[in-house]
Sequence to fold (256 residues):
Amino acid sequence: MIDVNVYLGQWPFRRLPYDGAAKLAAKLRGQGVTQAWAGSFEAVLQRDIGGVNARLAAECKEFGEGMFQPFGAINPNLPDWREDVRRCQEDYGMPGIRLHPNYHGYELDAPQFAELLDMAHQHKLIVQIAVKMEDARTQHPLLRMPPTSLAPLPKLLEARAGLRVVILNGLRNWRAPVVEQLASLGERVAFEIATLEGVGGVEKLIAHLGVEHVLFGSYSPFFYLESAVLKLKESELGGVQRNAILKKNAARLLAT
Fold:
């Protein structure tokens, strides 16, 4: 199993179970996860993104026996963000980057975001975009962060053939037209299932978008890992579909 949505470090607003790399690795391994794409909770509010990414790379190397694949954060509103992109690929050998536009204060139609996509493509990095991090009902009253709008993204990706993009925490409304528009761009765009809700949700999602666009993601340790696993068990999926979601689709993105 490949889990494309986990986080290391501490969530700024409360302690979470399994928020240590060693504990999280053991938890993931207990459910059959063999590879986890990991971002850092520190990236949400800290301004020293270079330091955040260095610690993430070191932690992924030290813990998990090769399980963790680090996805560095980039904040295009901060100075020297282009150097952060370069370090992610050249210094740390990261397969991708993870973006948090709502916490970092930009929309996807911002000029610096388009430049960031171009740099990611140049460095052959997968781009993960976290639509949201927390339900509005549990957010700190001084930090109300609406979900990132994906509306500008299809047009941006149409002009950047081959760029690989994974949408995180973005399936609360999977019938939205923008989701269909993104899926129409081909297998290089995918969605993970952490925020997918409803009985038979995975089964309905792949009927709507196609199984090639669906990845396994748990958003651990913020969400319970078992919740994501249960979503696959309670949907009627064939062996080929299950294998595609659990491993094949993510492996294809890594190899592209």
